[in-house]
């Protein structure tokens, strides 16, 4: 079901049709960020094991920053003349990925799965940046700033999964469960 997201008005200097494309792109970013926020809190609540405190405390600043990112995206949607669909129903109906699949687990297992989550978020964000760059530099700039922060968060996660020789434990993992198993092998 394709919805026409062309607003009745938008910011000066952007055509309404381009604003509609940006709104559609940003809706998916909003869903990704809302989903990531909930996934990070899920990890925060369900992490166990000897690395509990370190991971528990590492995740909360990521949660806070991701929430701020979602707010920035929602406000950009509104500025462009769109509606920021931030409800759980809209997220579930429109997302193209599955729910996070790891429950209560060892800290390093969660980090293995979270590494794959971040990879998916970052890959789709890079595609969104490319598309936004063709339409609007302000939206592109917003997304680039978020890219830097999310890449740093993945680096924090990967630091727990990397050997001294530079090998990433999850590099061959294709699913969250595989990545969690490979991470748990390190723990």
Q: Which keywords apply here?
A:
187 residues, mainly alpha, Ferritin, two-stranded parallel sheet, elongated
What does this structure look like?
- There is one protein chain.
- The protein has 187 residues and is mostly helical.
- It has one domain (16-186): Ferritin, core subunit, four-helix bundle (Ferritin, Up-down Bundle), CATH 1.20.1260.10.
- 68% of the residues lie in helices and 2% in strands.
- It has 6 helices and 2 strands, in the order αβααβααα.
- The chain has helices spanning 16-46, 52-79, 88-94, 107-133, 137-159, 176-186; strands at 47-48, 105-106.
- It has a two-stranded parallel ribbon with strand order 1-2.
- It starts with 15 loop residues before the first helix and ends with a helix.
- Estimated share of beta-strand residues: under 5%
Helix vs. strand class? mainly alpha
Q: What's the mean pLDDT score?
A: 95
User: C-alpha Rg, in Å?
Assistant: 18 Å
Shape: elongated
Spell out the CATH superfamily: Ferritin, core subunit, four-helix bundle
Oligomeric state, counting identical vs distinct chains = single chain
CATH topology: Ferritin
Give the terminus-to-terminus CA distance: 44 Å
Low-confidence parts = none
Family: Belongs to the Dps family.
Protein name: DNA starvation/stationary phase protection protein
Pfam families: Ferritin
InterPro entries: DPS_DNA-bd, Ferritin-like, Ferritin-like_SF, Ferritin_DPS_dom
